[in-house]
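Thread: "does anyone have the structure for this chain?"

Original post by V.I.:
We have the sequence but no experimental structure in hand. Need at least a predicted one for the grant figures.
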Amino acid sequence: MIKQLSLSLVALGAAACGHESSEPAVRIETSANTITINAEQLTDVMPVEGTVHAERHATLSTRMMARVISIPVEVGDQVREGQTLIRLGTDDIAANRAKADAAVRVASAARDEATRQVARMDTLYAMDVVPLVQRDGAHLAFTQAESQLAMAQATLAEVEAASRYATIRAPFTGAIVARSINQGDLATPGMPLMVIEATGPREAVISVPADLAGFIAVGSFVTVNAGSGLTAAAEVKAVASGADPMTRTVQVRASLPANWPTGVAVTALVPTGTRLGVAIPERSVVRRGQLTGVRVVTDEGVLIRWVRLGRTVAPTMTGDDTIEPRVEVLSGLEPGERIVP
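Reply from O.Q.:
Generated one for you, tokens below.
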């Protein structure tokens, strides 16, 4: 029955293509490299869109208001951890530091004098020269002087902390991917100034429909394709425990190689279930117009047989760790037959 159907399809295909020959198949050279067809559990997949991100990225800002005096790096530059990225004006900080230093010196001198006064009052009180209330007054003045010194020192520490925000440094080794400020601009607290991404592995962030999230587990693999021709078997490293109430999707993060550019759109093949069927490598499909066929090994040699294909199924990994896309065969092939890829 299958052979009769195959002959009919080939005859129709030859007529549609303008071939005068009514031969049911085309003979080609025999190859020793063959694939044996087997019925197996096929994993259905659904394409889901996502985006490539760096595993570490940071948006840099400052806690002070100051004018930008220099930006020694540019977008695309590679930077090392601790390298200066932006310098802000420090005129106000210098003035505040001078005032805080002066306040600390005054408070320190007052505390030293209060210390000496306490010692004198204690001696005189022991000699019954001054009353208790006068000695207690000296101790109170000493406590107040110590408090004033602590306040002055805290103010100085605050100024020193603010001065560290005048020089913005790289928090880790990476590359500058965005800059939103120029020299001479006024930087304000919390204002995004620059974005840096760490070098190293990337990750695909995909939003999987909530009803499919159960087919994905941490440690499993999904095939990720980029429009530039990049393809990778990405290991799932995180699956959100809940769905976004607005989109009804679950965020999934999967690891990608370091050479993938960030920000590009990707398509992940997410598993949707399994079933019994027959699948072949996509590279083994022969296409003639709208007809699809495979090279089948027969007693007469290797012949092209036209088949009906179904959906794309989960790919396999070859011996050299490359991804082998596969497609389901609905009719035209039986388990046990051999094909030439």
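V.I.: this helps a lot. The two ends are 25 Å apart (CA to CA).
O.Q.: and The chain has a mean pLDDT of 83.
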